[in-house]
Amino acid sequence: MMGSSRDLAVGTVAVASLLTGSMLSSAVSPTDNPKLFVHLAFTATLIAGILEVTLGLLRLGFIVDFLSHATIVGFMGGAATVVCLQQLKGILGLNHFTQATDLISVMRSVLTQEHQWRWESALLGCCFLFFLLLTRYFSKKNPRFFWISAMAPLTSVILGSLLVYLTHAEKHGVQVIGYLKKGVNPPSFQDFVFFSPYFPVALKTGIVTGVIALAEGIAVGRSFAMFKNYNIDGNKEMIAFGMMNILGSCTSCYLTTGPFSRSAVNYNAGCKTAASNVVMSIAVMITLLFLTPLFHYTPLVVLSSIIVSAMLGLIDYQAAIHLYKIDKFDFLVCISAYLGVVFGSVALSILRVLLFVSRPRTFVLGNVPNSVCYRSVEQYPAAQTVPGILILEIGAPIYFTNASYLRERIIRWIDEEEERLKSSGEISLHYVILDMSCKS
Predict the structure, then answer these.
(1) Which segment of 32-36, 58-62, 194-198 scores lowest on mean pLDDT?
(2) Reduced to 3 states, what is the DSSP secondary structure of residue 273?
């Protein structure tokens, strides 16, 4: 509720979870000393929360601005693709699956277990996926029936559970959730490990995973904000994530952020405000206290189908095609984001900003006929240059990093213009006007 995103659904994510486990297990074995391992995880979560709140209070939310539109488009597409591939575990009924999230590892895990594929699970998954996509298509064509698409995931869970219960499909390769322990998490105020030789490990883990979880959560939040055409406040998001992890560490929770898959399901269900997280929390609490036996027969393949259906609508290939037509470098950033899923793409976004500042574009302006407007003669072929005057628009503020380049570029424009006038026999160049009005 402290954040500015309307669509972000909070929860754990694979990258932060695996990183927390690997960093802590290098010092403490989770099998030999599980109690200390869990306490270190709570401590690392507290440290991550304090770090995130500190970054927000220092107003470092401007870091979000380095995630360009091209980066967001590529990130959403890449994340959606990876999440869809990971759901092959549930759809194919595989018992063992890779913990990695990259494409090669996932496909290797799927293809090397071909003999374990369960056609019953795959058939059930395809049927429910078709049902979910059909209801979404119908709701888009008939907006007054929006509730059909919103109810489709819950309907799928109920129908899937009844089908498994009546046919005993769990005995024929269809994996189910199984037994769920009742109750909510106990308090963990007394479990923090501050005065211990293992505290430096928890400190390092909290800092590293906190930054990664924060980057992923903000990137996901901005992705959906762009989809719905509103803005998010990076500072508020940092403080919200931090407070959530601080309070979570005191109630037996480990690192939490804004997972892409859960947020996509939240978005696809039609959420309008962050109050959806409150409703979600209450529903989870009621479920943990009273309803866990009802989910014993819920097939995992139905949950995988719900996630895949939510992911497919987030691959915006039309935006990528538009970027290719408008700006090839932005298209490269988009493709890099798709392939690298955020980390490499952020670097390219920063590179894009640096190139824009250090190598700003310059345009020759001409008068648009029957108007007082001056526009780029490349974009407006009908625009006419003023005889004897060269009007140049500078595409960025002038700094020490681009002063030399601009001087050389302006001289080159002057030489080219004088050469053109000389060859055409027109009036010689008398004045050069630099238009920097939009940069003031």
Answers:
(1) 58-62
(2) coil
pTM, to two decimals: 0.59
Query: CB within 8 A of 304, min separation 6: which ones?
Result: 87, 88, 89, 90, 91, 125
Rg (CA), the chain: 28
Is the model's pLDDT at 29 over the cut of 60?
Answer: yes
Structure tokens at 291: 């309803």
Residue 427, token pair as written in the block: 């009036």
In the structure encoding, which two tokens stand for residue 39, read together? 């306490």
Q: Say which residue the tokens 């008398």 belong to.
A: 430
Q: How far apart are CA 18 and CA 100, in angstroms?
A: 9
pLDDT of residue 400: 66
Cα–Cα distance, 407 to 399 (Å, whole number)? 12
Distance CA(350)–CA(47), nearest Å, equals: 28
Query: Of 8, 1, 3, nearest to 219 (Cα)?
Result: 8
178 residue type, one letter: G
Predicted confidence (pLDDT) per residue in 361-404, tens digit: 788 899 989 888 888 888 888 888 888 889 988 877 777 667 77
